[in-house]
């Protein structure tokens, strides 16, 4: 039996995910503590979700550039009212 993974639009807060995503956009920022981070918009066939990559340096900027495919393993959470 083939089990198809459900897309990000079908996951709820608190669930663990392990999915492949297209990085739709990647934006560099500086946190209030002065450390760099990336805001990633991750997309699959069902929708998109925002993710944060903390302490992101130049190497991470290259690895997590727009149009790359990444495998994400983590928990769906809400931060400031946004699902991420």
Describe the structure.
- The chain has 1 helix and 6 strands; from the N terminus they run βββαβββ.
- A hairpin with a 5-residue loop joins strand 1 (16-30) and strand 2.
- It has one helix at 58-63, and strands at 16-30, 36-44, 47-54, 69-75, 78-79, 82-83.
- The mean pLDDT is 84.
- The chain is mainly beta.
- The strands form 2 sheets. It has a 4-stranded antiparallel sheet with strand order 3-2-1-4, with no helix packed on it.
- The longest helix is centred in the C-terminal third of the chain and has 6 residues, at 58-63.
- The termini are far apart.
> From the alpha-carbon coordinates, what is the Rg to the nearest angstrom?
13 Å
**Strand order in the sheet with the most strands:** 3-2-1-4
Instruction: Report the sheet with the most strands, covering strand number, pairing sense and barrel closure.
Output: 4 strands, antiparallel
Structural class: mainly beta
User: Which percent range fits the helix content?
Assistant: under 10%
The secondary-structure element order is EEEHEEE
Low-confidence stretches: none
Number of DSSP-assigned strands: 6
| Strand-residue proportion | over 45%
What is the averaged pLDDT score? 84
User: What is the 3D shape?
Assistant: globular
Count, helices: 1
Ends apart, CA distance between termini? 31 Å
């Amino acid at each position: 039996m083939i089990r198809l993974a459900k897309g990000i639009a079908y996951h709820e807060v608190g669930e663990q995910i392990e999915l492949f995503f297209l990085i739709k956009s990647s934006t560099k920022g500086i946190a209030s503590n002065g450390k760099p981070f990336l805001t990633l918009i991750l997309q699959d066939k069902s929708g998109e979700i925002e993710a944060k990559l903390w302490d992101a340096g130049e190497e991470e900027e290259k690895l997590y550039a727009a149009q790359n495919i990444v495998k994400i393993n983590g928990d769906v959470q809400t931060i400031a009212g946004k699902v991420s």
